[in-house]
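Annotated sample (chain length 403).
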Amino acid sequence: MERTAGIDLASEEHRLVIVDADGRQLEQRRIKHSESGVEALVARLLELEVARVAIERPNGLVVDRLLEAGITVVPVHPNQLAAARDRYRSGGGKSDGFDGYVLAELARTDMHRLRVLTPDSDETRALRALTRARDDLVGQRVALANQLRAQLEAFWPGAARIFAEVDSPIALCFLERYPSPEDARTLGEKRLAAFLARNGYSGRRSASELLARLRDAPTGRTGELESEARRQIVLGLVAALKPSVEQIKLLTSQIRGAIDSHPDGQIFRSLFRDPKSVVTAAELVAEIGDRRDRYDSRDRLEARAGQSPVAIESGKKKVASFRWACNKTLRDAVGVLADSSRKHNPWAQKIYADAIARGHDHPHAIRILGRAWLRIIWRLWHDRTPYDQARHGNLNRLLAAEG
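Output written by the structure step:
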């Protein structure tokens, strides 16, 4: 008889529940998150010939070990699990064992709504790890840069405005050498020019222009003790920012090499005119993946990327609502593609302008354009061909109409 299982994951201990073909619970046990525990989990599932295992996460160590053992894994979205709990309880109780049972039941009864996990290739998973790690570092960099800017605005605004970005390499070197107004008291044009030369400043501003920016800003009126305290804070934030900036640069270089060697890399690189858009192209590759059967229709891809609305109908009410449940990283990458393309692509410009003319705001217009791009991406991805403007029918018709 066919058996299904559900695993409720935790950091130190997982809960396994196995049910038979009639939904009767055969076994429930705790599994420690250790090598021996994971081995015992896999061995028990194989021993009982479990047909499918439902689990909330589509990735992770436990999922990898199950797939390696040839066990069929069914990922269940947390929203689906939350909605299914009331089918199996009359009260409002909740426990790890109960969630495991609900997962096992979903794998038994709801496979017409669920999909078996089909993992991506090693190249895609490596690229996804690189892009997500870089995204996390960028978030940390932005947070630290905001804190640094706030400190400078409080007692030395000129140092935040002398260079275009407060977290640029030259700005961090400047703040490391001159973390307070007192340190820059004797800074003149010649000394600043020498500093810029030593640190390889490649900007177009002269030393006199930068010095004017520094001196034109308002002057702080902090006391001696507060000024020294803020000086130490600036040095600490600079020390935290410099390695983040270097690591982001290193990861970007690794991402460039990874997407160039990826089988689908050229498909997504062809969507961008600027070669520097390698990170966004890599995010599209990593988040869409390489399993064509995962998105057998373009509607699935549009929903996954959060570009298609959710229809809410009740009686005479019919509303298209924003789609919250989606892949946020993929949604952001599609948004970057749409926003950049409307600035140089006549076809994208028209779709965006028409959406604005209909009364949509900028984010909504970008989603409309993003959905149009995803239809093209889905076709290119399935055909395994790069984007070619000469074969873009709508673009050619628009250019012909414009003469």
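Annotation: The longest strand covers residues 25-32.
Annotation: Strands lie at 3-8, 13-19, 25-32, 50-55, 73-75, 310-314, 317-321.
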